[in-house]
Write a structure and sequence with these properties.
The chain is of the alpha/beta class. 42% of the residues lie in helices and 10% in strands. The protein is built from nine helices and six strands.
Length: 220
C-alpha cells in the first residue's frame, strides 16, 4: 500500500532544468559553440557528471574566465526563472494526495537555498512534511541517500512510497532506495530511457492521482 509520495524538485515541480540549459546554451552561442543536449543531460539530477566550463574550453581550445561566465549564467538564469510556472498537474496532485492522507516529501540534489525560495513563492512549502536537499548528504542522486532520508523522515517503508522524477539519475536514486518510481519527463529529458520506471506519465495533468496509483498497483 502506498502511504507516501516523494517529489523531486528541479524539472519535476518547476522546470528549472530547461531554464539552466537555455541559459548556458545562449552563452555557448556567444562563443560560436553549440551545447549538446545529450552532453548536458548527463548532469541532470546530479552534480559533477558534466562540466560546461570544461566543455567550452575543449570546444575553444583554450581556457576561459570561468568566474565571468558563471556570473553571466547566473544573471541569465535569474531572469528566465522569474517567468516559470509550476509544471502541469503538480498542485492538483499535491492537493489530492493531502486529501487522501498520503505523506508528502521532497528529495532534491539542489541546495536548500536554491529550492526553498521557489517553494515559498509558489505556496508549496506547507504541503511537504519532509524536505531533504544536497546540504544533508555526501552524495546526491543517483546515490539513494536523499530518498532514504525522505522515507525515514516520513515514517514509512521504502516499498510504501513512490518517487516522482523527471530524470534517469533521480529515478535510479529512488529505485536504489527501494521506492517505486514514476517518471514524468520534461521537454529536456523526454529522450531519456526510463525503462527502469514502474510507470511513465507524459504529465501529472494527464490523469488524476487515483488513476495512476491504480495503474501503479498493477505493477506491484
Amino acid at each position: 500500500m502506498i502511504r507516501a509520495i516523494v517529489f523531486d524538485f528541479d524539472g519535476t515541480i518547476l522546470d528549472t532544468e530547461s531554464v539552466a540549459y537555455d541559459a548556458f546554451r545562449g552563452i555557448f552561442k556567444e562563443y560560436g559553440l553549440e551545447l549538446s543536449l545529450e552532453r548536458w543531460a548527463l548532469g541532470i539530477g546530479t552534480w559533477g557528471a558534466f562540466d560546461p566550463y570544461r566543455e567550452m574550453e575543449e570546444g575553444l581550445g583554450r581556457p576561459v574566465d570561468r568566474q565571468a561566465i558563471e556570473s553571466k549564467y547566473k544573471m541569465s538564469y535569474a531572469e528566465r526563472v522569474r517567468n516559470l510556472t509550476l509544471r502541469p498537474g503538480v498542485v492538483e496532485t499535491l492537493e489530492e494526495a493531502r486529501r487522501r492522507g498520503l505523506k508528502l516529501g521532497l528529495a532534491t540534489s539542489s541546495y536548500r537555498s536554491m529550492v526553498e525560495p521557489h517553494l515559498r513563492e509558489h505556496g508549496l512549502s506547507p504541503y511537504f512534511e519532509a524536505i531533504h536537499t544536497a546540504d544533508e548528504v555526501e552524495k546526491v542522486k543517483p546515490d539513494p541517500a536523499l530518498y532514504k532520508l525522505a522515507v525515514a523522515s516520513l515514517g514509512v517503508r521504502p516499498d510504501e512510497a513512490v518517487a516522482i522524477e523527471d530524470s534517469v539519475n533521480g529515478l535510479r536514486a529512488a529505485k536504489a532506495a527501494g521506492l517505486f518510481g514514476v517518471a514524468v519527463p520534461n521537454p529536456l529529458t523526454a529522450f531519456m530511457d526510463f525503462s527502469e520506471a514502474d510507470l511513465v506519465l507524459p504529465s501529472l495533468a494527464e490523469q488524476p492521482l487515483e488513476a495512476w496509483l491504480e495503474r501503479l498497483g498493477t505493477r506491484l
